[in-house]
């Protein structure tokens, strides 16, 4: 079964998942878990939808795909990728997990665009059987085409039950001004930026101060791009609510194994040793993984 959205086409498969077609590209959804710190352990709290393009059956870099798309087509691609992620989330993710979906602020140029996007989301969520309260609308770091239009759209999303996140805080346009304008529920810190801050005692102290300021205002924080175990230790020490990165789990293309995987995460048995499948979760304080204290590598 297939249907069209703008210039894009979505194909539904027998296993319940969907793929998209855009020109010479086939687009698939991948999902990466986002973990929350809970009583010294990590458990899956959410998933981020990520696009994976293929051409002639061969995987392509997402950046390469987006670079080939004319700016005038960005709005249609936004609709396509958002729809794919929501349909696939309904088909293969745990029913209680939150779903982070990216929004490019540069495409929201006026109220008509925002209203159309919101209307499409309602229809797709109904089809996918997803409660809007599970969806986190993640505003990426691009410059807004219209700050007023973006603010109005964010308010409309919030009024319809969606939560708001600011992505890549510390990079490009994702700065404190965007936080003040959008008043998000969640802030995701830019991976490169937090790694730089973690490299020194002064930088890490600043990172802790920022996290405490956001958390104190009821804004949850996520550290992205956690790829080494010492970063995970410092992320917990910083007070961040959640973490995401290859050191914990890589993205999986839909259909994923995450429904059974998430059930295992919440089992009460003791967690496995570092490097094994997560099982009941990773003990953030008691594992034997290498850690780092401002440039010095040690093993607990």
Please give the structural blueprint:
Blueprint: E1 2-5, E2 8-12, E3 18-22, E4 25-38, E5 41-55, E6 58-59, H1 62-67, H2 74-92, E7 98-103, H3 111-128, E8 135-139, H4 147-159, E9 163-169, H5 176-182, E10 186-189, H6 191-198, H7 201-216, E11 220-223, H8 229-238, E12 242-243, E13 252-253, H9 258-265, E14 282-283, E15 290-293, E16 296-299
Parallel strand pairs: 5-7, 7-8, 8-9, 9-10, 10-11, 11-12
Antiparallel strand pairs: 1-2, 2-3, 3-4, 4-5, 4-12, 4-13, 5-6, 5-14, 15-16
Helix pairs in contact: 2-3, 3-4, 6-7
Concise description?
With 300 residues, this protein is an alpha/beta fold. The protein contains nine helices and 16 strands. The protein has helices at 62-67, 74-92, 111-128, 147-159, 176-182, 191-198, 201-216, 229-238, 258-265, and strands at residues 2-5, 8-12, 18-22, 25-38, 41-55, 58-59, 98-103, 135-139, 163-169, 186-189, 220-223, 242-243, 252-253, 282-283, 290-293, 296-299.
Question: Can you walk through the features of this model?
Answer:
The structure is a single chain. The chain is α/β, with parallel strands linked by helices. The protein has one domain (2-266): TIM Barrel. Helices cover 35% and strands 28% of the residues. The chain has helices at residues 62-67, 74-92, 111-128, 147-159, 176-182, 191-198, 201-216, 229-238, 258-265; strands spanning 2-5, 8-12, 18-22, 25-38, 41-55, 58-59, 98-103, 135-139, 163-169, 186-189, 220-223, 242-243, 252-253, 282-283, 290-293, 296-299. The strands form 2 sheets. The chain has an 8-stranded mixed β-barrel, surrounded by 7 helices. The chain has a two-stranded antiparallel sheet with strand order 15-16. α5 links the parallel β9 and β10.
């Amino acid at each position: 079964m297939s249907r069209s959205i703008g210039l894009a086409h979505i194909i539904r498969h027998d296993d319940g998942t969907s793929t998209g077609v855009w020109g010479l590209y086939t687009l698939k959804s991948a999902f990466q878990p986002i973990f929350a710190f809970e009583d010294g352990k990590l458990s899956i709290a959410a998933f981020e939808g990520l696009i994976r393009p293929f051409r002639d059956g061969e995987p392509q870099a997402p950046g390469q795909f987006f670079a080939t798309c004319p700016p005038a087509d960005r709005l249609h691609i936004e609709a396509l990728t958002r729809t794919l992620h929501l349909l696939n989330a309904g088909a293969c993710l745990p029913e209680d997990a939150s779903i982070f979906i990216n929004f490019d602020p540069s495409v929201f140029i006026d109220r008509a665009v925002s209203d159309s996007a919101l209307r499409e989301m309602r229809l797709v969520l109904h089809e996918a059987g997803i409660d809007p309260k599970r969806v986190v609308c993640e505003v990426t770091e691009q410059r807004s085409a219209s700050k007023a239009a973006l603010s109005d759209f964010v308010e409309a999303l919030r009024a319809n039950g969606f939560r708001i996140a600011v992505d890549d805080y510390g990079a490009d346009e994702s700065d404190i001004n965007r936080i003040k304008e959008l008043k998000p529920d969640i802030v995701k810190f830019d991976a490169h930026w937090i790694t730089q801050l973690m490299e020194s005692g002064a930088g890490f102290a600043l990172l802790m101060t920022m996290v405490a300021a956001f958390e104190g205002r009821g804004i949850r924080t996520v550290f992205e791009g956690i790829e080494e175990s010492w970063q995970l230790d410092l992320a917990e020490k910083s007070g961040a609510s959640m973490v995401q990165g290859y050191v914990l789990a890589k993205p999986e293309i839909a259909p994923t194994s995450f429904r059974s995987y998430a059930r295992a995460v919440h089992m009460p048995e003791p967690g496995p040793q570092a490097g094994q499948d997560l099982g009941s979760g990773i003990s953030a304080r008691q594992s034997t993984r290498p850690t780092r204290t401002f440039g010095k590598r040690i093993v607990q």
